[in-house]
Write a structure and sequence with these properties.
The protein is α+β, with helices and mostly antiparallel strands. It has helices spanning 35-48, 83-91, 112-129, 151-157, 185-195; strands at 6-10, 14-20, 23-31, 54-60, 70-73, 98-105, 133-137, 139-146, 164-170, 174-181, 201-204. The chain has 2 domains: 6-135, 2-Layer Sandwich (Ribosomal Protein S5, domain 2); 138-204, 2-Layer Sandwich (Alpha-Beta Plaits). It contains 5 helices and 11 strands. Strands 2-3-6-4-5 form a 5-stranded antiparallel β-sheet, with helices on both faces. It has a 4-stranded antiparallel β-sheet with strand order 9-10-8-11, covered by helices on one side. It is rod-shaped.
Length: 206
């Protein structure tokens, strides 16, 4: 099951091309955290290639496989032959927050409904094979107040929890602001309590 707090997302705009019976299909994949992001990518592709016959689209604006914020369009192709096959490929991909636009230039030969569905889905699958990705992480912020005697112990904990020190202040006590992946939050709190014998103060950051 996909962790909704961290998963792969597109790292860059990526393209792949397929030619079927002289029709040219170009898939554009890009990051889309929201429906508005997806619409912006679609508008940009349309503006780039105004001479194309169709710009068919699908997007999943959420974790991999999530159907909460999705969309699709056949853009004039026969109903169900483009947007839905593309969306099914995206929903089964291990990548979230993604939009696909498949641009077609008609080559003069009709492909039939089955041929169209295979071409649109196949172009998206081709682009997904070598799509560069990065990891989307939901971060949590904590503020720590501790005595000087616990500084080394706390600093040693940070790499284990993928935690980053955002800010530090050395006064009467030591104050740290730490950022770490949300799923590690409670485990980190417990580790801090253990390392400082309960003496450190840990509060959620703003």
């Amino acid at each position: 099951m996909t962790d909704p707090t961290r998963y792969p997302i597109p790292a860059a705009v990526h393209r792949a091309e397929l030619v079927v019976e002289r029709s040219r299909f170009v898939a554009t994949l890009a990051h889309a955290a929201t429906t508005a992001d997806a619409q912006a990518v679609i508008a940009a592709v349309r503006a780039e290639w105004p001479d194309a016959t169709h710009h068919c689209t699908a997007w999943v604006a959420g974790p991999p496989g999530s159907s909460t914020h999705i969309g699709m369009s056949d853009d004039g192709e026969p109903h169900g032959t483009a947007g839905r096959p593309m969306l099914q490929v995206l929903l089964h991909a291990p990548v979230g927050e993604i939009v696909a636009v498949v641009t077609r230039w008609y080559g003069g030969t009709k492909l039939g409904t089955g041929g169209l569905a295979r071409a649109y889905a196949g172009t998206v699958e081709l682009a997904l094979r070598d799509l560069p990705t990065t990891e989307r992480i939901t971060w949590a912020t904590l503020d720590l107040a501790l005595g000087y005697g616990h500084v080394d112990a706390i600093r040693r904990l940070l790499p284990e929890f993928e935690a980053e020190l955002l800010d530090e202040d050395y006064g009467a006590a030591v104050s740290y602001r730490v950022r770490l992946p949300e799923p590690e939050l409670e485990r980190f709190r417990a580790a801090v309590r253990d390392a400082t014998r309960g003496e450190a103060e840990v509060v959620a950051g703003e």
